[in-house]
Amino acid sequence: MTEDDIIEFAAGLPGVRVLTVTESSGAPEIAWGDSFIYYDPDRDIPDESFPFATIVTKDYPGFDEASNVSRPDVFRLNISVGRRRFESQFGYPPAAQTEHEAEVDYTAFDMVIPHPVYAKQGWVSILNPGERTADQARLLLTEAHGRAAARHRSRPSG
């Protein structure tokens, strides 16, 4: 899967908006080129709200460097899967991630792994999704989309 494949798949889900930030979007320079995937059927959610998935194309120095995404031709798909899916994926709840840090190779390609920074919030990551993880990436994106849609429907109007 390429970044474009992921963006095309996600954008095809109902109510999804994908924002790939650029200099003209007003985002900080460090985020330029990264993509944020939102459930936003009414196109009324501000860009700084919480996406249900992201694609990052570089390390964020001093904050998120464990995956070494700044290597050539590397990107990382990040998906908010929630506590239940996280636990079924890894066998422990997100809150226990610190105890399992040594077990994770955050630089491994084509593997579903806990997110190096947001695992405790129920996020997973895949560096350069490929043959082993493409189907799972699409499934996890679809599930995350469903969760985001449910949250959107339950938010107060007005």
Q: Summarize this, please?
A:
With 158 residues, this protein is α+β, with helices and mostly antiparallel strands.
Write up this protein.
By secondary structure, the protein is α+β, with helices and mostly antiparallel strands. It has one domain. It has four helices and six strands. Strands 1-2-3-4-6-5 form a six-stranded antiparallel β-sheet. Strand 5 and strand 6 form a beta hairpin.
The low-confidence parts are none
Topology as a string of helices (H) and strands (E)? HEEEEHHEEH
Global mean pLDDT: 94
The geometry reads as globular
Number of strands: 6
Q: Strand percentage, roughly?
A: 15-25%
Strand order of the largest sheet: 1-2-3-4-6-5
Number of helices, counting only DSSP H or I runs of 4 residues or more: 4
Task: From the structure above, extract its key features.
158 residues; alpha+beta
